[in-house]
Design a protein that fits this description.
This protein is mainly alpha-helical. 34% of the residues lie in helices and 0% in strands. The chain contains 1 helix and no strands. The longest helix is centred in the C-terminal third of the chain and has 26 residues. The termini are far apart.
Amino acid sequence: MSHVNPDPEPERTTGLEPGGSVPPGETPPAESSMPQAAAREPHANQRGWAKAPLALILAVVVLIAAFFLVYALVLIR
């Protein structure tokens, strides 16, 4: 496997001044892409929440809403 250096070579790249700076009006050279592919992530394309955590969050929200509703009704009396 050969490794390709992603950095441009200043002596072979057009539009660069000595030292590697870019003169005004010039577009800097584009960076190259990495030659190796990233590792596969089999779980990366799963979408949505699992049912148990979502049900737990909804239950907590309903309990908190019920608490404040009862608290408001007690204050009104």
